[in-house]
Amino acid sequence: MNKLFSVFAICFFSLPVFAQFTLQKDLPLSYLVSQPKTKTAKPGLIILLHGYGSNEADLFELRNMLPDNFLITSVRAPMTLAPNAYQWFRSETIKGVKGGILKDLKTNSDLIKAFVKGAVKKFKADPSRVFLIGFSQGAMMSFEVGLTSPELLSGIAPLSGRIFESLRPNIKPSSAFKNLKIFIGHGTADEKVLYHYATEAVSILKEKQIPAILHTYQGMQHSINEQEINDLVKWLKEK
Prior knowledge:
With 239 residues, this protein is of the alpha/beta class. Helix content is 26%, strand content 21%. The longest helix has 24 residues, at 100-123.
């Protein structure tokens, strides 16, 4: 049985595990950073975006499973829910509520874009190897960022996410996606962000002539399993 990674629960107990990593606050969003195991002059850069009610320590536990030649940052969402629990946008957004909640998406996608630029500059990363990987709310933010500013990234990997209707008119034309690849991962038994949102995202992108690869995981709920990580690593190494 594939190992399941708990990446959607509030992780009050995650932070002490990474006590040796100091929360950095010198870029537009707070983050943890892990240096590449294989040193290069210009490392690739992976930016991890956690889900609702989680924090920067959650996805950071995947760092040892990702390719050795990447510098890995795991970012904290800017909106506080509870101690050690954060969100990228108010949860009502997922029910289609508009108004001020859509402002969350715009404001925080702009913060992520500024973080990408700042991290590439600070860490002297290779701008042709910058990847945004998000889970749940983080996946939705990776769509928001990648589909409106594809020139900043080499690829996005939304895991268990969706494309909001409000994003559709703002997606850049297909010509802007020549250098960006898209990995969509989703479990068929996801009870929080239903699987049909993954197939819908592929249909939206196909309609706009933007290629994306959908990886389906039978029986997986709202989580990440070992096979998905293996597929993700293979995808990262293809660039």
